[in-house]
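agent: user wants the structure for RNA polymerase sigma-70 factor (ECF subfamily) from Azonexus fungiphilus. delegating to structure tool.
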Amino acid sequence: MSTPTVSDSIALLYCQHHGWLQGWLRRKLNCTQQAADLAQDTFVRLLAKPEPQLLREPRAYLTTVARGLVINHWRRQALEQAWLEELAARPEVSSPSPEERRLILETLEEIARLLDGLPPRVREIFLRSQLEGQTYPVIAEQLGISVNVVQKAMLRATAHCYRALYA
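agent: tool returned. relaying tokens verbatim.
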């Protein structure tokens, strides 16, 4: 008899908990297809781990991974909805092609991922500066803070993005 492999362990985990996880996700998302997709993605994440560990509480672990995937799903939906609203407000002549839309959504998703983990104020300062083109003094005045605080927030946000991209 051979020793069980990591993939054998994950296969057993899948058989024992996939139905439960998919039901949990279906209740969270109110969508059977999205629940099925995210349940699969949860197990793919387990397979992709360099050294999967033995799980003492598999449902708690699966819930944690799946919850992160749900949050990413909702974030992507919010980005797509905001982008679609922006497109609807544009004249037809300036509407991007389907390929351009896909690239823009991917870029927005990447920006959201890069800024994930920043405190809300630091994120807001960064977005006002980089997306809206506001100067540090304007940001400071609008938020009721000093220019020095804006500079420190920008430094923190830039360092965070650099680490997310290159570390």
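agent: one observation worth passing along. Helices lie at 6-29, 32-48, 58-89, 98-115, 120-130, 136-143, 147-166.
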